[in-house]
Amino acid sequence: MRRLLPLLLLLPAAAQAQVEPSKLYQGVDRDFEVRVRIPRDGKAALVWGRPDGSKISEITVKAGKVELSRAFPEFWNTVPKTVTYVQLRVDGKGVGAPLVLQPMNNPVISKLAADGKTVEFVPDEDQAFAGYRVYVAKNLLLETSFGKMEFRLRPDCAPNTAFNIMQFVEGGLYDETIWHRVVAKRPDGTAFVIQGGDPAGSGSGGPGFAYALEKSPLEHKFGTVSIARSTDPNTNGCQLFVCLSRAGTKHLDGRYASFGEMIQGKEAVLKTAAVPVGKDDRPNDPPKILRAKLVLAAPWGEEKAPLGEP
After folding, report:
1. What CATH number is given to the structural domain containing 197?
2. N or C end of the chain: which has fewer CB within 10 A?
3. How open is the CA angle 176-306-159, to the nearest 5 degrees?
């Protein structure tokens, strides 16, 4: 697997978003303003919740500007360890995509163990919470030679990786790139991966910089999308791979940063995996990612279930 991003500025939201932050970065203990649009009559509320669907707090709102750190009194009093979400609900029903609140905590450091294979994660001794990176939740949509593939991004599992991918998409990096590596079967007969997203098309290219491996709890299984790298765990970049089975990819858990799960496009993946390949698992006639784009995610707690094994 190969490679290679720091954090470019991502504009906060699409026009249809119902809750938008005033800015991307919100420093700790400062005013935290969002703008709320309420598209229909009814009792409107903002719900602050966790990735598992549990609610932290809820407030009634009207359209316009809302100061979250005042509306939720506990907002700056608790140091979060993972991503949380803020969702608009009208009469109890989610409306629009949620806001992603990614805590700006000092990252865990990854390194190779003495065996040269095992990845070790070491927490930063000087822990600090600096505030939030805030943006509207999006899904990743790949328009490919064989149809569309849509992935729910999981910033709760690999926040920096998911955010970097969004920036690559916004910048057009994936458009007209190829699936340069297809491993339909490993030597043991288990289905492995399709890999693409290299702007060089060679399997060795990247965006020009690398970023650290994140310890994602998201399992590698059919439809999981993960970031490729070289031997050093901190060489993550723009190349991504889509898993073809749990049996063939479970050994990647904890070693590669899985950042999303497929909710549409099983046939497109299987058709890509079926193309003839030559040396180094390179397709004879490589299929393409024609265009990559971001689409608004489903409301928090109402996401589609990931696709199962074929």
Report:
1. 2.40.100.10
2. C
3. 70
